[in-house]
Every structure is written in C-alpha cells, then in structure tokens.
Amino acid sequence: MSDSTFKTKSVLFEFTQCNKCQHENAPYQSICENCKAYLREKIVNIDLWITIQKLIETPLEAFRTIVYAEHKNFMFFLLLFISIKNLIITRFISIPELGKEGVTTSIAFLLFLSVLITIGFIFLISSVQSKIFQKSNVKLRTIDVMALNSYSQIPLVFSLVLIFPVEMIVLGADLFSNNPYSFQIKPVITYILFFVEIVMVIWSFLLYYFSIRFAGFSKMISSISTLIVFIMWSAILFISSKVIFTL
38-75 burial, b if ≥16 CB within 10 A, otherwise e? Predict the structure, then answer.
C-alpha cells in the first residue's frame, strides 16, 4: 500500500469535517459538536467477528470501525485472554530455571498478577500514545487507543484458543519440563509449534505497527514505536518469569 493511501486515510482519521458548518470533529463523533448535524452512520458496538475478519483482511478498516464505535465492547474480554497467553509465555520462559515442578504460586494468583500486569502495560502505552497523538492533532481518547492496542493483540488470542490446546494434547505437562525439554522429547512437532507461536507474536506487533501508521505517522516512527513496545513487552515477560512464580 502506498504512502499516499496511508495519508488519505490518516487525514480522514484525524478529524471528520461537518458538511453543514465545516466544523472539525474528532473521529469517534457521529454528530457534529457545533451544529448537531449527522456526520456519519452511528456505530454503537463493535461486532467482534466482523472486526476479526477485517483485522485479517483489511486492518486499517478494522481500526476505523474500532475508533468509530461508541462502546469498546469485548476489550476487557480480549485483555483477559491476552493475560492468560502472556502468563503461558512467561511460564515457558521460566522453564530453564523452574522446570515442571518448580512453581509454588497458585494459578489463581498468577492469573490475577498477569491480568494486572497486562492491563497496566496496555494502559501505560495507550496513555503515552494518546498524549503524543493529541500533540500531533490526532484526536483520540485514551480509551480509543487502548481499544486499538487491545484488538491488535488478537493473534495472541488465536494462539491461546487454537494452538495452546494442540500443544497440551501433543506435549502435555512435558511442555513445561526441563528434564528433558520438550524440544528433546518431540523435536519436530515442538519446533513447528514454536514457529507458529513466533508467527502469532510477529503478527500481533505488525497489527500494532499498522495502528500507528493508521494514525498518520511515518514508517520510521511507526517502526521505532513498535520496536520499543516489543522490547518493553519482552522485558516485562522476562522479569515476570523471574519473580511471579516464586512468590
């Protein structure tokens, strides 16, 4: 997709100009602040399945729908699933030190911590992004940016729902064993599943990249932002793997 296409979409994304009074409105508004004229068709809720389909086929259109929707429904539902997936990744990172029998913390408490960490991380980066967006005349609220960031992690939900059950069926508890590792027990299937997991992570951060591009930022800024967020996410999971399983 060319830069000119991105720029056209970005201008539409930054504001919606009223045809009646020419007032510039934030993209999430369906009625003009100034004259109360209708700007576009009202979108009350996010249709989860249609949005998932758009994220696969046309991510930019999916992001527009997410911003336009008055209610950011399913966002916290997605964050719960993302928290579970992050916990599983964190547990996998801890295998070399803890192995299968080394975890002493209850699963309920671990999930509670993972939810807090995940929501806190998404809220932090969304708050910073929304301030940067406002300074760049991209009129988005923190809740809009938080919804964009949450939905961009849909591939991690796919991984949890579709791939993790296969891992448990094929590898069972050996998935978290270091005596021996699952890579030694069933190397071919383990490497295949590991590769698919990496693809899901790359896909999720590619969607995050497109969400920044959609807001009107250059490829360089979007790439740097994506890299920074990826490093932060990786660091949080790595630190968590050293701490939360031994509390």
Answer: ebeeebeebeeeebbebbeeebbebbbbbbbbeebebb
pLDDT at 8 over 70: no
Q: How far is Cα 30 from Cα 18, in angstroms, rounded to an integer? A: 10
- The answer to whether 13 touches 67, Cβ cutoff 8 Å, is yes
d(C-alpha 200, C-alpha 186), whole Å: 21
* CB burial string 166-179: b at 16+ within 10 A, e below: ebeeebeebbbbbe
Span 203-215, mean pLDDT?
90
Helix axes 142-151, 107-135, angle to 10 degrees: 120
Quick one: which of 221, 69, 74 has its CA closest to 154?
74
Domains of the chain, by residue range, sit at 44-246
What confidence tier does 2 reach under pLDDT thresholds 50, 70, 90?
Answer: very low
